[in-house]
Structure formats: structure tokens, C-alpha cells
Amino acid sequence: GLRAIAAPDADPVRVADLYRELGPAVILSWLLTWTYDLVQIRFCGRCRYHRDMEGIATDIARSLDPVRATRLHRSLLALQRHVNHPLNPRLLVEHMLITYQQGMGEGAIAT
User: Fold this and answer.
1) How far apart (Å, rounded) are the C-alpha atoms in residues 36 and 46?
2) For 15-51, what is each residue's pLDDT tens digit?
3) Residue 106 binned pLDDT confidence (cut-offs 50, 70, 90)
């Protein structure tokens, strides 16, 4: 699941469709723990949650703008209050994935 999300060319709508049965809470948990790991690796060189993907996370974290990544993590945290809203969970998942993709886009990489 997380490999599809972490791929640089991931399509948020396709990923949301692929994992539609899991629901927003699971996807948000993946995104929160993943962004936490990226920031943690960037600052401390350690991975806490996704040790099976530590190599990929380390590669991403090396060029990550830590301020922008931290802002992304906080934006995802703010979505927790909406995760169980009954109105369109699919749109919420798409929104979370698009937020992640935008946060990890070119501007998230330090130059």
C-alpha cells in the first residue's frame, strides 16, 4: 500500500481507487507515519514505523525540505478530525493523497 503512495509518479485518484476498501483512517495512518519517518530520518537518521521501506525513505529524506515536510505532516494531522465523516470517504482519501503529492512535489525538495 505505502509503496504505491510513496512512488514519485503516483496518481492520487488511481491510488484512492486501488485502496477504496480500506477507508480514510488507514490511508491517513499510512501518510502520517510515512511523513513522520521522512522527517525523523532527515533530522535524526532513524526510521520508526516503516523499517521495511527505510531505504526508499532515506533516499527521499536526503533531499527533503524539512520545513515543508513538517508542514505537510501537520496538514495531514489536521485531517484526522474529518477521517470518520460519513459524506464521501473516497473524496477525502483523494484529497489526502493530493495533499501528500503536492507537499512532496518539487517544492518539498531542498535545492
Assistant:
1) 11
2) 889 888 888 999 999 999 999 999 999 999 999 999 9
3) low
**Residue 81: what are its φ and ψ, rounded to 5°?**
-70, -15
Can you name the residues that pair with 76 across neighbouring β-strands? none
Distance CA 103, CA 101 (A): 5
Residue 59, Cβ density class (10 Å: 0-12 exposed, 13-18 middle, ≥19 buried): exposed
* Contact indicator for 90, 20 with CB cutoff of 8 Å: yes
Instruction: Kindly give the residue spans of alpha helices, DSSP state H, lying in 1-111.
Output: 2-6, 12-18, 24-44, 54-62, 66-78, 89-103
Closest by CA to 105, choosing from 65, 55, 58, is 65
Q: Do the beta carbons of residue 101 and residue 94 sit within 8 Å?
A: no
User: Taking the model in full, what pTM does it have?
Assistant: 0.84
